[in-house]
Design a protein that fits this description.
Pfam families: Phosphatase (PF15698). This is Phosphatase. The protein is α/β, with parallel strands linked by helices. The chain has a single domain, classed as 3-Layer(aba) Sandwich (Rossmann fold), CATH 3.40.50. About 40% of the residues lie in helices and about 20% in strands. The strands form 2 sheets. Strands 3, 4, 5, 6, 7, 8, 9, 10 and 11 form a 9-stranded mixed beta sheet that branches. A two-stranded antiparallel ribbon has the order 1-2.
């Protein structure tokens, strides 16, 4: 797909409700804003955020960085994402990805939304690999347990989709949505250990990521570790935007992250075009 113009992409984002008037409930957004401000770990995505956040300042920050409705009296119904902010941040993400390609950097790529965003990440992964970047795939098979909805626990493990995109898989073999930072933390522990160890030549191998391209807790954990991090976030996921406000996340693209995968294709083409990369595969 040839990259669309900015106006064409804006129209597409609004038509498909990736941005503009989105289907994310306002009451859900406000609940998540409050829980993030209260320091609930599930809503902080592995970031150690400042304790000074309040529900009101989170709303103000989300108006600025995501484009949600600024009216604090709007407590029910749907919410909004500013499509121009979306495109601005896609361009900023493209600039950073293009820099990674020119530098042939080490990159980790991961998603907590495998059902919808995987094709976006795979296209970026292939383009970066073609440019000479090393797409890292540490800790494959690393497993941990979460509490299940019916009591007891369920196993989750790190798997990699084609291209080197990390995600979680459940015991039933299905990929899983997650907010957890633990898988990225496990990946970084392995990379740190591998980087510190010496190879047969006596030289240290540098496997530490220069860039993380991710969402949810995968992005939060990477940003908290000091890695340049770019990614996507919905308007009910304020933590990454707060991380950007605090300087821990480099770029956050606001969008509805639950749209049918094929609708993200024009945005992906625009992102790669901005990065100076071409799609492959």
């Amino acid at each position: 797909m040839a990259p669309p113009s900015r106006d064409e992409l804006r129209a597409h984002l609004v038509k498909t409700m990736i941005a503009g008037d989105v289907a994310t409930p306002r009451q859900n957004n406000l609940l998540h804003f409050r829980r993030m401000a209260d320091g609930h770990p599930y809503y902080q995505f592995g970031l150690e955020l400042k304790p000074s956040w309040t529900e009101r300042t989170v709303l103000e920050m989300m108006v600025e960085r995501c484009g949600v409705d600024p009216d604090p009296g709007h407590v029910y119904g749907d919410d909004t994402i500013d499509p121009d902010l979306t495109i601005d941040m896609v361009e900023a993400m493209g600039d950073r990805i293009g820099l990674a390609a020119r530098r042939r950097e080490n990159v980790v790529i991961a998603t907590g939304h495998p059902a919808t965003l995987t094709p976006v990440y795979q296209a970026v992964a292939r383009a970066l690999a073609d440019s000479g970047c090393r797409v890292l795939t540490p800790a494959a098979g690393w497993t941990y347990e979460i509490e299940s909805d019916w009591g007891g626990t369920e196993a989750r493990r790190i798997v990699y989709a084609e291209g080197g995109v990390a995600m979680l898989e459940g015991g039933d073999g299905r990929t899983q949505h997650t907010h957890d930072p633990y898988p990225m933390e496990a990946m970084l522990r392995e990379l740190a250990a591998d980087t510190a160890s010496e190879g047969s030549t006596g030289e240290k191998t540098d496997l530490w990521p220069d860039l993380a391209i991710a969402d949810h807790g995968w992005a939060g954990a990477a940003g908290q570790a000091g890695i340049d991090t770019v990614g996507f976030a919905d308007c009910n996921d304020p933590a990454l935007f707060a991380g950007a406000a605090e300087g821990k996340i480099d770029v956050v693209v606001p969008l509805d992250d639950g749209i049918s995968p094929h609708h993200y294709a024009p945005m992906t083409a625009y992102l790669l075009g901005r990065a100076g990369l071409s799609a492959s595969g």
